[in-house]
Automatic annotation (TrEMBL):
UniProt lineage: Eukaryota, Viridiplantae, Streptophyta, Embryophyta, Tracheophyta
Residue segments, region Disordered: 43-73
Keywords for this protein: ATP-binding, Coiled coil, Microtubule, Motor protein, Nucleotide-binding
SMART domains registered for this protein in UniProt: KISc (SM00129)
Organism of provenance: Salix koriyanagi
Gene3D superfamilies per UniProt: Kinesin motor domain (3.40.850.10)
Any single biological process term in GO: microtubule-based movement
Name of the protein this chain belongs to: Kinesin-like protein
Amino acid sequence: MPFLLDTASAIKKRFGFQDQSISESVPCTPDLLKSVSRDHHLASTQPVVATPASRRFSDWDEDGHGGATGSEVAAPRHAQSFEFSEDPSFWKDHNVQVIIRLRPLSSSEISVQGHGKCVRQETCQTITWTGHLESRFTFDLVADETVSQEKMFKVAGLPMVDNCMGGYNSCMFAYGQTGSGKTHTMLGDIEGGTRRHSVNCGITPRVFEYLFSRIQKEKEARKEEKIKFACKCSFLEIYNEQILDLLDPSSTNLQIREDVKKGIYVENLKEIEVASARDMLQQLIQGAANRKVAATNMNRASSRSHSVFTCIIESKWESQGVTHHRFARLNLVDLAGSERQKSSGAEGERLKEATNINKSLSTLGLVIMNLVSLSNGKSLHVPYRDSKLTFLLQDSLGGNSKTIIIANISPSLCCSLETLSTLKFAQRAKFIKNNAIINEDASGDVIVMRMQIQQLKKEVSRLHSLVNGGAESLDNDTSSLSFLGSPGQFKWEGLHGSSSPLMSEKRMSQKKDYEVALIGAFRREKDKDIGLKALQAENQAAMQLAKQREDEIKSLKMILRFREAGVKRLEAVAAGKISAETHLLKEKEEHLKEIEVLRTQVDRSQEVTRFATENLRLKEEIRRLKSFCEEGEREMMNEQIMVLQNKLLEALDWKLMHESDSLAIQKTSLNMDTEVHDDLPISIQEQKSPRQSSINEENEFLRIQAIQNQAEIDLLHKQLEFCFEEKDRLERAINERTEQLELPLSTDGSVVNANDQMELKTMVDAIAAASQREAEAHEKAITLYTENNELQLKLETFD
Ligand SMILES: Nc1ncnc2c1ncn2[C@@H]1O[C@H](COP(=O)(O)OP(=O)(O)OP(=O)(O)O)[C@@H](O)[C@H]1O
């Protein structure tokens, strides 16, 4: 990769470092080789001074991975070394740490400005800018030129890994002008990823080593808890406000998304699962190489872009029947050079690039400024979304993260202003207040309950679909859970999975119980719904019925009143008190009133259909009555009455005739008896006389009765005549009404005039009454006829 070597060489020359070491370090990432060559150069020009280490990192040192060789750092001549030690309790109480790292003067700087410096370190925490107006700055730590890579890792990198292992999101920024040592701090030398890292290896590879050694130790120490780890990594570059996936360079211009569960993430960014530090380092090297290629292709320096390497660490273990799930995200950010990009004279892409680099860094500055204001109680909008960088790292700045900012500065006088700018930036960043929390769901029950809720929700929707006649298959128990801020969804193997101890029979039976209870509840709910609907329908029907009954009662009362009036009128007519004409006029008047009253009710009548049926029935009745008349029954009855009448008269005549004859005979026989039997005692004669007189009396009685019967028959005859007339009149009236109304059944056959129905009904009732009277008269005539017959027989007996 000669072009990479060329680029590295050019940078080194720019800062006065020699290239000779390049040939000494064989398979190296060119970008990272800079520090090796430079250190070699520094070592050759400056005496080596041992770095005082105030605290041993026994765990890390013992395994030998992080051990310094003692040849890596060349302390500056006459430099005063300060104790540079970490405070193990720092991260317990703080979420943001700011460290200043000075790099040694480069040969070019020395050649230009000599050994003059723009800064003077006062203590391990304070540094004074010795420029035009001296300014003193205090930080959490100030690392001078003598601080080794290993030391930097132990102070900055190691606690970050510990934080992540504890479930905290963590972030490390390297800030500073170009050539100030950001990449040296973050990456340093990387020896191809296959061998143990060199003394100049930066924080990132050491972080990988330490991370996996911690994981291994955790696994060994917590075998009983069956702790499992899953690590993933991603690597991206933000250049010109565009995101490039360094692990998949074909993915360009990726978009940042925000999700309630996942938090802020880059859509479609490749996340590669890694099982070892070497795997992760290989990804880092590959990404760095891709970054170089991209920079070269675009004819730009990588210092103009920001790079973010992210490690995602997830762990799961069991403790006392509870499953714990923890995750953390570690962002390792190498920012673009903080010096102002020169936009004057730049055109096209260069101008755009300069603008965007300035934009993202100025937004970062603004975000930090506003966060500081916020921590001072002011309410300000924090413009995270104004740049890709701040949007992506939103959590790391003022959010859920433990963040460390390493501000790299050059002590050279030639970098005085940029150094001052960096110190000011770092000073502000010191006031950022983050709110880091452990990303852990320590309650397996909660997880299970969540999953049960999901299951029950599915069950609910399935039952709903069943209730609605659908059939939805929701057999798949596999579900995924995700937690707020989680880097991704945590795959859960479902209730039938075998990985969780909570997938016990107890859980299964609980689930079944819930299902049964839920199904029961649904059934009851459905039953209640049905019952309620039935009750509502019943209630409505009852109300309708009550109303109908009310209306019917009203109608019936009215009809009754009309009937009574009609009957009275008919009686009056029969008694000859009023004329039939007056009665009809009166009745017509009454009918009109009745029609008027009923008309007001018809609109709201619920029984129109019933009336229509009734109408048909009445029509049938009318037809029957008509046929009764038309088929000659009336004449027949008249005829029968006449026959009876004649027979009765004949019987009477015959009787009277025989009575006169028998009286004459009796007289004759009496005379004879007197003449022949004068000697008969008078008593016998007297005996015959009372018998004769009783017969005479009886005959007289029968005669009178016959006359009365005749009179009665005459009367009945008259009544019958009247009934027939009345019937004819009513039939005519009905026909008229029927023609008038000819009850219009609507298209659906349901709408008829209820008033007219009532009227018709009344008429039919009147007809029925007339028919009844007619029948009664008929019956009476028959009775009389029978009586006459009996009388006749008696008379014959007497005769
Ligand atoms: N603490 C240090 N000790 C020894 N050499 C250092 C140190 N810091 C930086 N250097 C050397 O300085 C040179 C520039 O450093 P580096 O490339 O890391 O700067 P940078 O800030 O990343 O620049 P850029 O923004 O252009 O990428 C490198 O050759 C590096 O090896």
